């Protein structure tokens, strides 16, 4: 079995375990409700709790992991790289959001993050051109600095450097930097589809094999934050089996 087969098998397993966890955990929070606006209605979590936010982050994590695998299998390596950057960000966000529920200090930026997360994109429903608000955000380096203090209290500086390096690896695929676009060039032509056996494909595939493990581990943090030990242990067993 080739490495792409391994990637498909690991991702199928990870997505299945994570979706099972998602379905179980969403039973423990109030369900979304209809919120009316001039053009109909949208579904929203009205309570806007940290648990509901983590649940949505979990669903996005699952979706991105599955989509990254599909793009990689089709040879869309640059687009897969962009999704891997989103997966790195989601993993950061999940640890940041869950940590205070796991006994780590809560800081002002947690309330700020949650407020921005729930904020609607437009403050004039149904009239985006009339909207005046601009969604804020908590700077990524602040999130990474907090996570570094959680992961490595004795040496947060090194932990932050590692996280920043991982984060930067695929940022160019998001922003369309020249070096990352040039990855599609083989010395003779530019390839829309990078094929198995080409250096870029093989390196991307090798790195992608780490993502099912990391995503299931992040999911276990969410289950732990929910206080659902059964789901947490199932996810813990899942990422251990992936690691083996």
Describe the SSE topology:
Layout: H1 3-25, E1 33-37, E2 40-44, H2 50-73, H3 77-98, H4 108-118, H5 140-151, H6 156-169, H7 171-175, H8 178-181, H9 199-208, H10 211-226, H11 229-243
Antiparallel strand pairs: 1-2
Helix pairs in contact: 1-2, 1-10, 1-11, 2-3, 2-10, 3-5, 3-9, 3-10, 5-6, 10-11
Q: What is this entry, summarized?
A:
The chain is mainly alpha-helical and 244 residues long. It has 11 helices and 2 strands; from the N terminus they run αββαααααααααα. The two termini are 17 Å apart.
Q: Could you characterize the architecture of this molecule?
A:
The chain has 244 residues and is mainly alpha-helical. 64% of the residues lie in helices and 4% in strands. The chain has eleven helices and two strands. It has helices at 3-25, 50-73, 77-98, 108-118, 140-151, 156-169, 171-175, 178-181, 199-208, 211-226, 229-243, and strands at residues 33-37, 40-44. It has a two-stranded antiparallel ribbon with strand order 1-2. Strand 1 (33-37) and strand 2 form a beta hairpin. Helix 1 (3-25) packs antiparallel against helix 2 (50-73), helix 3 (77-98) packs parallel to helix 10 (211-226) and helix 10 (211-226) packs antiparallel against helix 11. It is globular and about 55 Å long.
